[in-house]
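Thread amino acids onto this structure.
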């Protein structure tokens, strides 16, 4: 009996991306951006490289969009103008359609690192030093909740992957993800993904996770409305891990406080600060500097004291 030939993943990707494939396939390219059919560029080792004449006319870009949505088993709908999905475990896609996208369809394709990174790799890249590694290892061994924060492009998601993979065994990890952008390679993991990326659905998923016997519950992207339900869940049932965005440590704390107040059922700021300190013991902040250097800049303990949320630095670059 003849066996079916396996599909070549790279050939399938080449067929999907069409004119974008040659740039996407370059090893150092980690992000490919289309702002209009005649405005295409990619990010190569942090530098923007403009591409000329990738599409000869707008209909060629439309065809790529149609293929991508068909792969995602979605049809264009007049009321649905943005799509976020994965092509595979290592490739994220964001598509925005007119009239939201004024110049025509806009696409961002992001490649996640295929190679498994370690903390020693981060030391080699100068994103971390040996002292920072020791502090992180003690933080993980403490079995306490922690927040991973950083500015845009700082590598905070890569750090979250490392930390989740480093959670001591045999703890069971449950993740809540708007888009499946985590690369978790460990046993005892249940990954739960939002289907609509709506805030109400993320709140519902927290209720689902409560029944999944999590030792650790990971929120891969804190947007806001789900924050207080998430913190209430981890304060009562398990250990919480959360990823969020901030321009500095202070900015991160202020954003979390604001989101927590808004997403609570009438809690005041002092009550929210107490809840944050109960849910999370540590805050790891990673930043991308003005020079483009990505590094873990600080790790702090969160301490509630006399109505204030205070930070006790245990590591600083």
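Threaded sequence (317 positions):
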């Amino acid at each position: 009996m003849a066996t079916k030939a396996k599909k070549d993943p790279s050939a399938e990707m080449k067929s999907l991306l069409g004119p974008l494939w040659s740039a996407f396939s370059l090893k150092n390219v980690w992000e490919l951006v289309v702002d209009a059919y005649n405005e295409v560029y990619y990010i190569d080792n942090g530098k923007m490289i403009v591409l000329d004449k990738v599409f000869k006319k707008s209909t060629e870009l439309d065809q790529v969009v149609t293929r991508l949505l068909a792969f995602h088993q979605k049809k264009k709908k007049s009321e649905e103008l943005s799509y976020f999905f994965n092509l595979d475990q290592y490739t994220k896609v964001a598509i925005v359609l007119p009239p939201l996208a004024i110049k025509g369809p806009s696409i961002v394709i992001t490649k996640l690192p295929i190679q498994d990174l370690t903390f020693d790799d981060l030391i080699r890249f100068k994103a971390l030093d040996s002292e920072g590694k020791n502090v992180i290892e003690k933080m993980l061994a403490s079995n306490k909740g922690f927040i991973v924060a950083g500015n845009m492009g700082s590598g905070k998601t890569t750090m979250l992957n490392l930390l989740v993979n480093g959670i001591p065994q045999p703890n069971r990890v449950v993740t809540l993800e708007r888009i499946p952008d985590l690369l978790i390679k460990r046993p005892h993991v249940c990954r739960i993904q939002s289907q609509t990326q709506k805030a109400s659905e993320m709140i519902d998923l927290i209720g689902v996770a409560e029944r999944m016997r999590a030792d650790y519950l990971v929120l891969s992207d804190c947007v806001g409305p789900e924050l207080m339900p998430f913190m209430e869940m981890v304060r009562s049932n398990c250990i919480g891990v959360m990823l969020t965005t901030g321009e500095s440590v202070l900015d991160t704390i202020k954003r979390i406080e604001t989101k927590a107040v808004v997403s609570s059922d009438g809690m005041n700021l002092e009550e929210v600060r107490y809840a944050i300190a109960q849910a999370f013991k540590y805050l790891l902040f990673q930043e991308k500097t003005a020079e483009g250097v990505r590094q873990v800049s600080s790790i702090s303990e969160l301490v509630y004291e006399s109505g204030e949320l205070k930070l006790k630095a245990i590591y600083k670059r």
